[in-house]
Amino acid sequence: MARPEVKEKHQAATKLAMTPERIKKAADGAKKQWADNREKMVDIQRQKWIDPETRANMLTANRAKRVLTDDQVAEIRRRYYSGCSQKVLANEFGVSKTTLHRVVRNISTYQE
């Protein structure tokens, strides 16, 4: 069990810490901190906003350009359906297996 003098000191310190003025001051500080953080987040969101035209230009600028011509696509499909493997065709045409798969399966920009 705690010694009586330690218990009394603890109770006195708790009473001092829990005064209404200190509670109000802490609450006001927390509100101000919250408001400051909210304003920072709003500023960050404003900086991230980009007008639609600029966003569209950014999306098309980052998009990969078409690597194969229409004739090459037709040749790849003809040879693939004749039995040639995608790996061999990808190496021959200098594209990745993923790109060749898209060509064969008619996905994305290689649709006819």
Please tell me about this protein's structure.
By secondary structure, this protein is mostly helical. The chain folds into two domains: 4-48; 65-110, Orthogonal Bundle (Arc Repressor Mutant, subunit A). The chain contains six helices and no strands. The protein has helices at residues 4-17, 20-48, 52-62, 70-81, 86-93, 97-105. The protein is elongated and about 95 Å long. The model has no long low-confidence stretch (mean pLDDT 76).
At the first level of CATH, what is the class of the largest domain?
Answer: Mainly Alpha
- Poorly predicted regions are none
SSE series? HHHHHH
Label the overall shape. elongated
Based on the coordinates given, report the CATH architecture of the largest domain: Orthogonal Bundle
Q: Please, what is the average pLDDT?
A: 76
The helical percent reads over 70%
Number of domains: 2
Q: Predict the CATH topology of the largest domain.
A: Arc Repressor Mutant, subunit A
Structural class: mainly alpha
The rounded Rg comes to 34 Å
Give a quick account of the main beta sheet: strands, pairing sense, barrel closure: none
The total strand number stands at: 0
Q: Report the portion of residues in β strands.
A: under 5%
**End-to-end span in angstroms?**
86 Å
Number of helices: 6
Helix-strand blueprint:
Blueprint: H1 4-17, H2 20-48, H3 52-62, H4 70-81, H5 86-93, H6 97-105
Helix pairs in contact: 5-6
